Amino acid sequence: xxxxxxxxxxxxxxxxxxxxxxxxxxNIERYICLGDTVGYGASPQECCELVRPLAxxxxxxxxDAAVAGRMDxxxxxxxxxxxxxxxxxxxxxxxxxxxKGLAYEVREGPLSFCHGSPVCLExxxxxxxxxxxxxCLPVYEELAEVTFIGHSHLxxxxxxxxxxxxxVVAQKFFIRRAHKYVLxxxxxxxxxxxxxxxxxxIYDTEAQAFEFKRVEYDVETAARKIFESDLERNFGNRxxxxx
Length: 243
Prior knowledge:
Purple Acid Phosphatase, chain A, domain 2, globular, 6-stranded mixed β-sheet, alpha/beta
């Protein structure tokens, strides 16, 4: 089965539409969303309306949790808190109830889907470095064979044994025996690796092959909608440079 796995749409409708169009050429059989459909961007309602029926699995992201009243976000910086408040007011009751019902993790056989580190799901810890991935070693036996995460907005892949962690730097690779993997799928709506193209991934469960993909989208429209809203202008500026 070919899975389309994506994360961190963050209210960017233009990026989400581009990713959905790109997926149409990839023979995807199921879609998985790793959280944070909302936060930062100008189209939270519209993005929820697309993701909710599209993704057969969608897990809870930290921005989803904040908008849905499931976590304290008082420690977020002012602009981020304001965006969350704006998005909470923008969602209709159906999409708000959807966010309120999302699970922190979904496991399907050898696969796990969650937003941040699988070690402590409710803490939404980042994994984008070897040191952070190494925090999974004490719970190695409990890890799924392949854990897919978002949250960092970076495309990163780590292969673990019971005693060590190595970074996988290939754009496409196959899952190897005697290893477990933590795969960070990047961000649809707010990439942070200085590549402003929307990020999405594909996992073939039969071939056990994983691939990072990118697609260009209408950044100018996505940014302009932010500039014309009550959101922080920098949320739009950063889209142009991918940070």
